Amino acid sequence: MSQLPPVLTIDGPSGAGKGTVSRIVAQRLGWHYLDSGALYRAVGVAASWADIDTSDASALVRCTFDTRIRFVEQGESLRVLVNGSDATDELRLETTGALASAIAAIPEVRAALKERQRAFRVAPGLVADGRDMGTVIFPDAPFKVFLTASAEERATRRHKQLKEKGVSVNFDDLLREIMARDARDAQRAVAPLRPAEDAVPIDTSGMGIDQVVATVLGLLPSQEA
Ligand code: DC
């Protein structure tokens, strides 16, 4: 058994509810939380601030090393500071997600973020949310989950979320973007989106957040949960 603090990895495609579920589960357990997608998004934002072209891989890799990223708890919300500026709202944009997905396909960018992600493994434990948490970053994690939901269901949820924020987007465009991002994340050569062999798959279609949280917590021994 590893002497390192325990990790619960929660991987899956965008919009499967990973972020919300991971945050609540981390809170319930009193564990730390890693939103690994936010790191890729932060690099994307920093690159766009620096006018770096997405085809310029070496500049993007330099940018990954140079970008300072800090997570700051502010009441209920988690703010993300990129090079000292609050980039939380820009980070959540669909365009930033697409940019992050493109940047995340560059192997050297992934390598540059590896140790930063592993540094989040601090006692009493970590809930790590992403695409390759269980396969590449924390392959020895004792608890692994792979959350899925149909693309239509994920697009419906994202559409509702955006509408609540006052952002109006076309449903079909959203569905197309989600499917394109799934395909890019699943087909890239390095650390593609796929469940770890020892991950427990949970299809969240038709499930409420509370139900998913309870299912995930139910996988942990009672002394952890
Ligand atoms: O989870 P998210 O939507 O915030 O992630 C944005 C993009 O970052 C996602 O489309 C692919 C990439 N990503 C990744 O490649 N590996 C991770 N562990 C997390 C995110």
Order of strands across the widest beta sheet?
2-6-1-7-8
Percent of sequence in beta strands: 15-25%
Give the count of structural domains: 1
Quickly count the helices. 10
By DSSP, the count of extended strands is 8
H and E string: EHEHHEEEHHHEHEHHEH
The helix content is 40-55%
Q: Mean pLDDT score, rounded?
A: 93
CATH topology: Rossmann fold
Looking at the overall shape, the CATH architecture is: 3-Layer(aba) Sandwich
Bound molecules: 2'-deoxycytidine-5'-monophosphate
Q: What shape does the CA trace take? A: globular
Structural class of the helices, strands and pairings? alpha/beta
Termini separation comes to 19 Å
Major sheet summary line: 5 strands, parallel
CATH class: Alpha Beta
Classified in CATH, the superfamily is P-loop containing nucleotide triphosphate hydrolases
Q: Which regions have little confidence, pLDDT < 50, spanning 5+ residues?
A: none
Radius of gyration: 17 Å
Structural features, described:
The protein is an alpha/beta fold and 225 residues long. Helix content is 48%, strand content 17%. It has helices spanning 18-29, 36-49, 57-66, 88-92, 94-103, 107-118, 133-137, 151-164, 171-187, 209-217; strands at 7-11, 32-35, 69-74, 77-82, 85-86, 126-130, 143-148, 200-203. It has a 5-stranded parallel beta sheet. The protein has a 3-stranded antiparallel beta sheet with strand order 3-4-5. α1 crosses α10, α2 packs across α5 and α8 crosses α9. The chain is globular and about 50 Å long. 2'-deoxycytidine-5'-monophosphate binds at residues 14, 36-37, 40-41, 97, 100-101, 104, 130-132, 181, 185. Keywords: ATP-binding, Cytoplasm, Kinase, Nucleotide-binding, Transferase. One of its GO terms (molecular function) is kinase activity. It is an enzyme of class 2 (transferase).
